[in-house]
């Protein structure tokens, strides 16, 4: 009889303990930051009513989870979006939630002709750690000062004619600003087809001293890249591959060309000294399909200046 009484007391104690545990409220992880940048309150029990005025995290898309706990790892965030509706831009840490965004198209940048081939992009939008860094800039203060004296600008070729006195030269009309034209005599006849150059955006240097080439006035220079001499060919054969520099496709007539990370010079020389230009030319080269000056990329406000189909180290003039 005493054993039965003890068992009943023990069962009663266990039942009370179970009731006490069931009555204790459950806790959920803290929610990620809300859309306005403030931390969300800790989640209430699922069966408890939400307080009046409490905000609901905004979904990024129909397939995305409504919130991302701060403690989630990169793998957990990716698993939370099986349809690929989210791209992890920054993994979660103990101090901040994961940052997610819209998906990146396969292959990253779609315009391969103007994408920087030295930058490899993962689908998550971060640089590929396995990609080798490009060559560092060797720009000196003196080089930068010389570059600031040159006036480089985008123009569009509107007319092309054969030079009357030369088999190597062409006479080109270029619009450098709305309604403003310059005549350029260029040694491109054997290297560039007229139909490929007509209506093309090009990069010019505008403040060289005007000159007469074969008796025809030239008021600017179209910059072009020149590849190395092919093996087994003679310098006199003129068989080097030549390609004109092209600004980013969204550039416009009149856009200035400057060094990446800087701004267009506000005080280029009215007439650039030939001695300054002679110092600049050896520093104009091609790397990774883009034009550089002393290792620094040339750009417009729309993106890099590129040169197709020429190897690294090709010269520009």
UniProtKB/TrEMBL annotation:
Record InterPro entries: NA-bd_OB-fold (IPR012340), tRNA-bd_dom (IPR002547), Tyrosine-tRNA_ligase_regulator (IPR051270)
MF term (GO), any: tRNA binding
This protein's UniProt keywords: RNA-binding, tRNA-binding
Record domain TRNA-binding: where: 146-258
Top-level taxonomic group: Eukaryota
Matching SUPFAM superfamilies: Nucleic acid-binding proteins
Compositional bias (Basic and acidic residues): 36-49
Disordered: region residues: 20-67, 97-145
Signal peptide boundaries: none
Biased composition range(s): Polar residues: 135-145
Pfam families for the chain: tRNA_bind
UniProt xrefs under PANTHER family: TRNA-AMINOACYLATION COFACTOR ARC1 FAMILY MEMBER (PTHR11586), TRNA-BINDING DOMAIN-CONTAINING PROTEIN (PTHR11586:SF37)
Protein name, per record: tRNA-binding domain-containing protein
Native source species: Klebsormidium nitens
């Amino acid at each position: 009889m005493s054993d039965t009484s003890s068992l009943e007391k023990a069962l009663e104690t266990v039942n009370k303990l179970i009731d006490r545990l069931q009555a204790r409220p459950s806790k959920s992880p803290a929610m990620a930051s809300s859309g306005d940048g403030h931390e969300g309150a800790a989640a209430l029990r699922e069966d408890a009513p939400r307080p009046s005025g409490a905000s609901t995290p905004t979904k990024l898309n129909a397939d995305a989870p409504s919130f991302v706990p701060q403690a989630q790892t990169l793998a957990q965030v990716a698993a939370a979006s099986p349809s690929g509706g989210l791209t992890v831009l920054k993994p979660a840490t103990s101090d901040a939630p994961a940052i997610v965004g819209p998906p990146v198209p396969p292959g990253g940048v779609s315009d391969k002709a103007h994408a920087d081939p030295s930058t490899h992009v993962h689908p998550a939008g971060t640089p590929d750690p396995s990609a080798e860094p490009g060559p560092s800039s060797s720009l000196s203060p003196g080089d930068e000062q010389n570059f600031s004296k040159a006036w480089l600008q985008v123009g569009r070729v509107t007319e092309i004619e054969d030079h009357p006195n030369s088999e190597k030269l062409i006479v080109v009309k270029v619009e450098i600003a709305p309604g403003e034209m310059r005549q350029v005599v260029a040694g491109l006849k054997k290297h560039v087809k007229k139909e490929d150059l007509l209506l093309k955006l090009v990069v010019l240097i505008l403040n060289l001293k005007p000159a007469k080439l074969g008796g025809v006035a030239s008021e600017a220079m179209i910059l072009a890249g020149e590849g190395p001499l092919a093996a087994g060919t003679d310098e006199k054969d003129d068989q080097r591959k030549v390609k004109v520099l092209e600004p980013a496709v969204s550039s416009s007539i009149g856009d200035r060309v400057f060094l990446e990370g800087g701004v267009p010079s506000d005080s280029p020389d009215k007439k650039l000294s030939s001695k300054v230009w002679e110092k600049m030319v050896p520093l104009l080269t091609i790397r990774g399909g883009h034009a550089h000056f002393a290792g620094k990329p040339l750009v417009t406000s729309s993106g890099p200046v590129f040169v197709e189909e020429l190897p690294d180290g090709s010269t520009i003039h």
